[in-house]
Amino acid sequence: MSLQPESRTAKVGDGGGKRSIWVRSPLGRHKWHPQAVLEQLRCAREDLKVLIKEKNCNPILVRLAWHDAGTYNQNISGWPFAGGAIGTIRYHPQLSHESNAGLVNAIKLLDPIREKYPAVSNADLLQLAGATAIEMAGGPTLPMKYGRIDAPSEEFCAPDNVLPMANPPDPAAHLRGVFYRMGFTDNDIVALSGAHTLGRARPERSGFGKIHTPYTKDGPGAPGGQSWTKEWLKFDNGYYKEVRDKTDEHLLVLPTDAVLFQDEGFKVYAEKYAEDQDAFFRDYAEAHVKLSNLGCKFDPSQGIRLGDHPSQLSYRRTVKALTASLNRFAAVAARLPQHGQQYTSTFLWVFALIAMLAVVVKLLTWDELPLAKRVG
Ligand code: HEM
Q1: 4-156 domain in CATH 3.40.50.2300?
Q2: Could you tell which of 136, 196, 289 is best to mutate to test the pocket of ligand 1, judged by most ligand atoms within 8 Å of the CB?
Q3: Which residues line ligand 1 (CB under 6 A)?
Q4: How confident is residue 131, by pLDDT bands cut at 50, 70 and 90?
Q5: The predicted structure's pLDDT at residue 372
Q6: Three-state helix/strand/coil letters over 137-160
Q7: Which residues pair with 87 in a beta bridge?
Q8: Which of 124, 129, 181, 186 stands the most exposed, by the fewest C-beta atoms within 10 Å?
Q9: What superfamily would CATH give domain 171-285?
Q10: Where does the Plant heme peroxidase family profile domain start and stop, copy by copy (predicted)?
Q11: Annotated active-site positions, please?
């Protein structure tokens, strides 16, 4: 029995067509088995490491992941209406927002990996790429989880102008307005801003930054732009030191960066991070993981961790299914007349039925793993 993903061909900006957690087989429609997703996530991560090493594209991958997740609005209820890390940045209407200028290049870089691993959702690939980029730049280990389900269509693209502006009239109020909408605190805002320790601003994309500086004119990667730090491919607390000291005219400080040392509520954290890299790494990791989970629906619901043992996922799934069935049985049994013998025999029959069903389900989904191995 061979399984085929429902759709694997996609153009940049079309969101990956009907790419989903579903696969077809002669026996009908199945979800990708979490073990297949885990295996492909691990392979995708290895491919991402090669890509990042070759292209030095850490910064743009981090920015891409953030711009997908940062659309979340906690005041809107129900998945996927609230936005967040649901993969919609792949779709043309959202990718073409002014705030996303240049991110099509990151989507193009990820496309071969996306095509190669159909069990990995678009939303997961974006967040996996961002987290891998941070870790490879020397940043903290991020305790991420995966198994995100993609928003079903471009109808769920975020509206324009929901991400922060770099030069608003009142930067502190603006940052609070945007990040509180996502459920973040002042502490999170300052920690997340530290991601600007990586990368550059380019006038032809955001309108900010210089065409080039002594730190960017020869790359690495595509030359040009203005960075916040001298070593803009290294993830450390250099951003806070540079923004605080403002001694290097070649480095960028946006109004929303400067305000971190001007606003009393932000300053306490910004000063701490300038002095204590461990504190920055701890808080950054926590805020980044929170960002990457905004608005997400996971399958399985507890998510998949790259360190999970494959059998753990099967075990958890089976236990969850059995527990749900037994709960249902208990609810029905509670309504039955209290004749002990009848009760016991009903219980045994139902239990045997559930066990048989579990075996049948396992057999029906058995082939998904070999496919994952072939793809990997
Ligand atoms: C606090 C509000 C923020 C504002 C106003 C802001 C604004 C900007 C701007 C204007 C650029 C330049 C883009 C370009 O010209 O290509 C940029 C780049 C970048 N941003 Fe932010 N950003 C914010 C928060 C964040 C957060 C929360 C993250 C990640 C967690 C992040 C990660 C990055 C990265 C890595 C780059 C460099 C991209 C590259 O080199 O291609 N930013 N940001």
Answers
A1: no
A2: 196
A3: 59-60, 62-63, 66, 102, 164, 166, 175, 192-193, 195-196, 198-202, 205-206, 208-209, 254, 256
A4: very high
A5: 40
A6: CCCCCCCCCECECCCCCHHHCCCC
A7: none
A8: 181
A9: Peroxidase, domain 2 (1.10.420.10)
A10: 120-323
A11: 67
